[in-house]
TrEMBL record, chain A:
Protein name: Sarcosine oxidase subunit delta
UniProt xrefs under InterPro entries: SoxD, SoxD_sf
Organism (species): Brevibacterium gallinarum
Highest taxon listed in the record's lineage: Bacteria
Cross-referenced NCBIfam families: soxD
Composition skew (Polar residues), residue ranges: 90-101
Region (Disordered): 76-118
Automatic annotation (TrEMBL), chain B:
Record organism: Brevibacterium gallinarum
Required cofactor(s): FAD; FMN
PANTHER family: FAD-DEPENDENT OXIDOREDUCTASE DOMAIN-CONTAINING PROTEIN 1, SARCOSINE DEHYDROGENASE-RELATED
Family: Belongs to the SoxB family.
Name of this chain's protein: Sarcosine oxidase subunit beta
Amino acid sequence: MLIIDCPHCGPRMETEFHYGGQADIAYPADAADLPDSDWAQFLFYRDNPRGDFAERWVHTAGCRKWLTVTRNTVTNEFTSTPRPGAPAPQASTDAHVTTTAEAPLASGADTARKEGQP
Amino acid sequence: MHDQRVLPAHPDFMWRSPEPKHRYDVIIVGGGGHGLATAYYLAKNHGITNVAVLERGWLAGGNMARNTAIIRSNYLWDESAAIYEHSLQLWEGLEDELDYEIFFDQRGVLNLAHTLQEVRDSVRRVEANRLAGIDAEWVEPEQVKELCPIINIDDNLRYPVLGATYQARGGIAKHDWVAWAFARRASELGVDIIENCEVTGFDIDHGRVTGVQTDRGPIGAESVALAAAGASSTLAELAGFRLPIQTRPLQALVSELHEIVHPNVVMSNHVHVYVSQAQKGELVMGAGVDAYNGYGQRGSFHVIEHQMAAAVELFPIFARAHLLRAWGGNVDVTMDASPVVGLSPVENLYVNCGWGTGGFKGTPGAGFVYAHTIATGQPHELNAPFSLERFDTGALVDEHGAAGVAH
């Protein structure tokens, strides 16, 4: 069970949340002219890193707000302070996530499950 | 049913473990079921024996050792039905072909329906299966009870059993023995199986792969074929392209050994559990896939809790069974719950991934068509619909209904 540090409600169990996948996917700017291959990238392709991953969760059973957090997909450690919402989608053809320098781990995130690879 | 308590003895060594050569005709990245089956069919069907299977860890230690060993072919769409049925027919001859016991047991697979919509979808799938020439029938709750006497069909359950699809030819096999059987025959035919050899990069010259970099040095190759399931994205990234898959934890567990009480395979998408009893006596239970991306080969406890709640409601006699082991695998899921088998943007580099939660049943079928693709440079007609291009063209093969979480 992940413990996710909601910026509004504090650390809560994963069962209160729903997963939203990769964060910061912008809607294509030139949607009307977009080639099929770019639509495919927008619709079906997401980063799938082994390691740090910026992802979204929605606190369905709490404040019902979205948050974005960086989590290590191997250890499940949260490696950034969760930030509320997500930046307003910037119209862009670049569907790749841009990871900005994140603040170090906040105390609330210390409750995150810390487990290595078996 | 085989009595597995009297296991045949294994030979001391079932495959050779040579040092890697400098060059191969084909390098297969990933020594799981699909990689080994591909190597076998390359040698047997196409006479290509200068082949290496490179495995980062130990042979078949990933998802091939972590699945619940269920085999069936009752998928909805023609494309899926064709490839999974081809696989099932290969399973039916595999023990003879590989000359090795794999405990393939066609004990029948029930896919339960718990809601009216699920009943409609299931009946539709049964009809679609029959049109595709696949054995399938719709069975009412009383017939479910006859087939599997320990199941609870009371209508006071939160999700009562309203019926099931039944594929009598479905069943299970012993997954590690399947991998060993393929490895043994492939090795006899000349394939080099190289464990503890991690691919760390690809040599690509003018858009064409010429070899791989490994932690045991560079190895040249005419063709390179990925068969790495949950690790496929990281390999594709090394080769400079993206794959439309997400790697997620999928958990399963087994109980201590019990008398044989469960005669077939029961799967329920709706309450997220699938159960069979290994010949040896463990109750084998699979859970739903975890919601988030993960490479740690373990998932969250609440998924197991949910799975156990469903199992105990459906099978009240499981309530006092003790857990023996629980584990997780890294499954590679696609948006349409169908695999990707075919060419990649890099010439002579092939991809086989995206089998998600259901790769085990596809092992011989995937190996057969993937070997054809590698040997000829063109997809076999059975895997042509499962190209990467389908995500560009929109010709998806949406199998969420038949695949669900429960393969």
